[in-house]
Amino acid sequence: MLCKDVLCSIRWIRQSGTDRTLLLMWILVSLLLSACGLKTPPQPLVLPPELKWVNSLSVRQRGEVIRLAWSLGEQLPIAVNSSRPLRFRILPYRLNYPCLDCELVPEPALALSPEHAAHLKFGHEWRMDFPIEPGDLHTPAYALEIWHPQEGLVERTPSVALQARTLFPQPSTPLLQRLASGAVRISWQGPGNPRHVTKSRESSTPQWYAANVYGTPERHALDESLLNAKPVLAAGWLFSPSRGSDAIGENKQEMTSLAGTRRLVRSTFWIALPAPPEDTWYFSLRWVDRFGNESLASEAVTISLPATVLPQSWRMFWPVPLVH
User: Fold this and answer.
1) Percentage with pLDDT > 70 across the chain
2) Which CATH number goes with the domain that contains 254?
3) Which of 77, 96, 178, 205 fits as disulfide partner to 51, beta carbons 3.0 to 4.6 Å?
4) For 14-63, what is each residue's pLDDT tens digit?
């Protein structure tokens, strides 16, 4: 009985990936309990991770549009053939102002074709923007349906409403400074009318908006090229463009010797590098509040940064070996 309990404990700990220290402690406890005539503690049941269709669903303001964004789980409950992708159906609702506690009013559903959905995908996320009509003060809410090509409707999410509307000031144009290290210092001026956070009934304190910085060498992709992982609270940020292993300044070309006609001798060797090319980067700025809502984008500014150059574009010259 004692050996059986210990073996069962070892087998369970190995399957759960527990470290060696906990393994030894568990064996010691099992031995003590078995010596006293007691059974080992009940082993917890390890359940496989629950698979889900929708990983995230959010509704936020972004300038003059309401953005609905969603992502799917890394592993879906039912496999999907790439030739027959999933279909999405958006269910819009509205909360009539000022009755925010009233029942949701459904609006016509919007079915997305696979071709339309493909244009809305950015990385692992789908994003769809709904324009805000002038004078429209209702609060939007959205639910999402997932349709499997063989199984039909497999998921309908609860509705998610916009948490708040924010009247953002227009962001000022950011200032760019290229440093000798290759990084870019991005600075900006805070808004002239910061939001006020109430600390008590008698007082409130001004609090600046955070900022999201967008940048890319491709002008058409600027609106979706977020650089910072989380909103920047300071009035400036340092950005270092990523450079591959074949970028100029990171290549290490070994010098070699060439064989002469009579005997091995050292020869002159050099590399003639062309002028390093540069890429034009575009940067813009958006204010962001505590709900994740964003303002309109600032005016885009440009700066030239070193481009990545492949070694094949280097020009190499070997002169005739010198023979003594």
Assistant:
1) 64
2) 2.60.40.10
3) 77
4) 555 555 666 667 666 666 666 555 555 666 777 777 888 999 999 999 99
- Is the Cβ–Cβ distance between 276 and 306 less than 8 Å? yes
Question: Tens of pLDDT along 66-113?
Answer: 999 999 988 899 988 888 899 999 999 988 766 666 788 899 999 999
In a shared domain, residues 227 and 292:
yes
Q: Nearest-CA neighbor of 276 among 242, 248, 243?
A: 248
Locus of tokens 């990983």? 55
Q: Are 200 and 239 in contact (CB under 8 A)?
A: no
Say if residue 227's pLDDT is above 80. yes
Percent of residues in the chain assigned helix, strand, coil, to nearest 5? 15, 35, 50
Is the same domain home to 304 and 184?
yes
> Does 179 lie in the same domain as 217?
yes
| Same domain membership, residue 138 and residue 199 | no
CA distance linking residue 21 with residue 243, whole number of Å: 42
Residue 23 structural domain = 2-35
- Provide φ and ψ at 280, rounded to 5°: -90, 120
Same domain, yes or no: 304 and 181: yes
96/180 same-domain check: no
* Both tokens assigned to 117: 């959905």
DSSP code at position 313? G
The reported pLDDT for the residue numbered 323 is 45
Boundary-marking domain end, from 128, 161, 194: 161
Number of domains in the chain: 3
pTM to 2 decimal places: 0.67
d(CA 116, CA 133): 23
Q: Work out the average pLDDT over 252-266.
A: 36
Number of CB atoms found within 10 A of residue 319's CB? 10
